[in-house]
Amino acid sequence: MKSSGKASTNPKLKKWNSAYQDADISSATAARVLTDNAYLLPQATPAVTALDLACGRAGNAIFLAKTGITVDAVDLSPIVLQQLEDFVQKEALPINCIQRDIEQNGLDPQKKYDVIVVSYFLNRELFPQIVNALKPGGLLFYQTWSQLSSDNAKGPSNPAFRLAQGELLSLCATLRIIHYREDGLQGNLQKGIRNEALLLAQRV
Question: 129: domain CATH number?
């Protein structure tokens, strides 16, 4: 596991280390925005790279690595990254585990990616860096909680950690939007994708 950036003083570190203490990496799943649109991924070659930002149990990184894409899995918690590294070595997957406090240190400005995936993480100030980290033609897959929630028990209680209606489109206004979905509160609330916003966009 690599460490990138200055040592973290983030008080969230203890929280996330505790949350991931008994993480089951083998059961991690990828975000729906990625799995539903995987046919749009670039053909995997040794030169194609991806970033799973704030990866957690790294379901996105594992999904991408199994297609042959080399992935940087970046997270604040060394606990979950050590478990991921053990899994990666066992499965021989092309994933680099990188511990970095992205909220304090930002993204690595030297890295550019063909694919970036972010799921269930929101820091609005990082969006310019995320866009800049895409190679020309690179794809951003983003999925996280929306303030248009039909079930308040799901996701963060603080609305600051949820997207306002249409906000994800505004945050990615410099990208070409390929796919956007935010089912909101209309219709049959027992169907569809509720409580979340999903976006796939390309840097052109």
Answer: 3.40.50.150
